[in-house]
Design goal:
Strands 1-2-3-4-5-6-9 form a 7-stranded parallel barrel, surrounded by 5 helices. A two-stranded antiparallel ribbon has the order 7-8. The protein contains 8 helices and 10 strands. Helix 2 (40-53) crosses helix 3. The radius of gyration is 17 Å and the shape is globular. Helix content is 39%, strand content 18%. The protein has helices at residues 19-22, 40-53, 78-98, 110-118, 120-130, 146-153, 187-200, 227-240; strands at 5-12, 28-32, 56-60, 105-106, 138-142, 158-163, 202-204, 210-212, 217-221, 244-245. This is 5-oxoprolinase subunit PxpA. It is an enzyme of class 3 (hydrolase). Keywords: Hydrolase.
């Protein structure tokens, strides 16, 4: 299993306060930039932590909906959504400029991520907002998704992402958070789930089927109450198998 290098990312700056414990075990982070959580102060604090740990920094724009933590789809015109995404990315980029750091990637959050994966209008709005960034910034997207296809067509570099702490349906969508089996909370199951995706390029869905999938970055949700324990276990077990997190 040597020679495998993967990325572990976490959603951070969301008001949970566990960033300093997560940073040693991740290689990239997605910083909330005011849509579902976060403000100038939390962005500054999280950026400094990421810089100290050598963790790649990404923007984590969302539907502008702090009340629902960006986890409920919003009816928005493409122009309004474009502006909301651009404003959030710009807010983080201003913080990065002060620290002399580059934005490495962008990853939509919550309902926006899930909708852009299946809805071409939402995906197109998001990709158009990405095109306002001059430097080549990567986009974290689900394998075989609508947003992946549209990003490729528009020459936006993509990185396929899978969720270390979420179960999948047969169509590779995530099991809805309202379902009891949506989250993976057991370190053994999480390692099996991630290791299978790395080694076999397959994911075991909740029906027990093995579906083809590709991923080079794996997400742990920072707001998962077990996040620190789970990411540490995953990091150490991957390392023991000769898989580098970088």
């Amino acid at each position: 299993m040597h020679n495998f290098i993967i990325d572990i990312n976490a959603d951070v700056g969301e008001g949970i306060g566990n960033e300093s414990q997560l940073m040693p075990y991740i290689s990239s982070c997605n910083i909330a930039c005011g849509g579902h959580a976060g403000d100038h102060r939390t962005m500054q604090k999280t950026v400094k932590l990421a810089k100290d740990h050598g963790v790649k920094i990404g923007a984590h724009p969302s539907f502008p909906d702090k009340d629902n933590f960006g986890r409920v789809p919003m009816e928005m015109s493409c122009a309004a959504l474009f502006t909301a995404i651009e404003d959030q990315m710009d807010a983080l980029r201003h913080v990065l400029e002060v620290e002399n750091l580059d934005l490495h990637h962008v990853k939509p959050h919550g309902a926006l991520y899930n909708l852009a994966a299946i809805d071409s209008r939402t995906a197109t709005c998001f990709v158009e907002a990405m095109k306002t960034i001059v430097a080549p910034v990567k986009l974290y997207v689900p394998f075989n998704s609508v947003i992946a296809k549209i990003a490729i067509e528009n020459n936006i570099p993509i990185i396929y992402e899978a969720f270390a702490d979420r179960n999948y349906n047969d169509d590779l969508t995530l099991v809805d958070r309202t379902e009891a089996n949506a989250l993976i909370q057991d370190p053994d199951l999480m390692f099996e789930h991630v290791f299978r995706i790395i080694k076999d390029k397959k994911v075991k869905t909740i029906s027990g089927a093995l579906q083809p999938i590709e991923a080079h970055t794996f997400c742990i949700h920072g707001d998962n109450h077990n996040a620190v324990r789970l990411v540490r276990e995953l990091f150490l077990r991957l390392k023991a198998k000769g898989i580098q997190v970088s």
